Amino acid sequence: MNTLDDLLAGEELLSLPAVAEMLGVPVTKVHDLVNARKLVLYRKDGRKAVPALLFADGEMSKFITGAITVLFDGGFSEEEILSYLFTEDDSLPGRPIDALHGHGAREVIRRAQAMAF
């Protein structure tokens, strides 16, 4: 089984200031999004980053934030949420994070609800 570090090894990771700049908000607003459980952080070696795929065209995606919220509400940790989103799932096919950017978004949300409860 892949670790979260393995799953995110080839992914673009954004610093919190980079996320703030992309969204056109102060960095404190990014912290607010994390605290509101609309965004999850990847933590490694004392650094915090956000996978770029958690955004769609440089904006927050309602499907991605919805999946994150449902999983948090179901008791998943940030690491478990990122692992779920970035792990291949042959039944989708692909990874949930990729499906959330396309026609599989509602199915990923449905599965997240089922997993969480």
TrEMBL record:
Rv2175c C-terminal domain ranges (all copies): 63-116
- Cross-referenced InterPro entries: Rv2175c_C, Rv2175c_wHTH
Q: Coiled coil located at which positions?
A: none
Domain of life where this protein originates: Bacteria
GO MF entry, a single one: DNA binding
Q: Where is the DNA-binding protein Rv2175c wHTH domain positioned along the sequence?
A: 5-55
The molecule here is called: Transcriptional regulator
What taxonomic lineage is listed for the species of origin?
Bacteria, Bacillati, Actinomycetota, Actinomycetes, Mycobacteriales
